[in-house]
Design goal:
Layout lengths: L2 H16 L7 E9 L2 E4 L7 E8 L2 E3 L14 E3 L3 E9 L10 H12 L1 H9 L1 H11 L6 H14 L3 E5 L4 E12 L8 E10 L18 H4 L14
Helix pairs in contact: 1-3, 1-4, 2-3, 2-4
């Protein structure tokens, strides 16, 4: 097999690995509470997923722990954090056609290294990926960016589907992207998500007999309307 053919096959394999499309990879059921009612925003699914960084960290107390004590009282899991690098591109529309070379330069420059060089060199692989990423609409990039910002500013909770896990009760903590002349018709955006730990609470009324100082610790009791007394 010639070197050119080998390069094209390698490019296709790399492009297939980097430009991975999955119907269950994205931000699903973003929900916020407005005026006492829950509002569900549209799902956001990236056209391309380049990177996923999953972070789970345990917080551990520094003081000595007694032998036999419950370790769960001295170590607790922090909220999960996920960093995503996602990609969108505008499809060909009226008066606008993003070429494979433009996408190759944009994503190749963003990814860098060997992967970026392969994508930039093998335009056929990028063109195939771009055909898969084609979507309807005049400006898919701005639409995706605005949807991310709406989800971010509304503090919406969502379910995050990734290649490794499914995360519930996630919130968008950061949205970052760059625009230059090479990325006018495409977008690579970095999104940081963090899990919100939700718990159920309830109020319990304690009997006055169980309180050492009821005058200070008891719940307020309505005594009706009181008149001021002048002394």
């Amino acid at each position: 097999m010639s070197n050119a053919a080998t390069g094209i096959l390698q490019g296709l394999q790399v492009g297939n690995g980097l430009i991975h499309i999955s119907p269950k990879r994205g931000f699903f059921d973003p929900t916020l509470t407005a005026n006492g009612k829950q509002v569900v925003l549209p799902d956001i699914i990236a056209q391309a997923t380049f990177e996923e960084h999953h972070i789970d960290r345990m917080e551990i107390t520094r003081h000595p722990v007694e032998q036999g004590a419950a370790i769960s009282d001295h170590a607790f899991a922090e909220p999960s954090i996920v960093h995503l690098r996602l990609g969108w591109s505008n499809s060909s529309s009226q008066g606008q056609l993003a070429s494979a070379a433009d996408i190759a330069r944009s994503w190749g420059a963003t990814l860098g290294g060997t992967a970026g060089q392969v994508i930039g060199a093998v335009s056929g692989a990028v063109q195939a990926g771009y055909n898969l990423l084609s979507v309807s609409g005049q400006d898919a990039v701005n639409e995706a960016y605005q949807n991310l910002l709406i989800m971010y500013y509304s503090r919406a909770l969502f379910t995050l589907y990734t290649a490794k896990r499914v995360y519930s009760n996630m919130i968008c903590k950061m949205v970052a992207t760059e625009t230059d002349w090479e990325r006018a018709n495409s977008m690579v955006v970095v999104v940081e998500c963090e899990q919100i730990i939700l718990v159920n609470t309830k109020t319990v009324a304690l009997d006055l007999k169980t309180q050492s100082n009821p005058a200070s610790t008891a719940s307020p009791i309505s005594a009706g309307t009181q008149q001021a007394i002048q002394r």
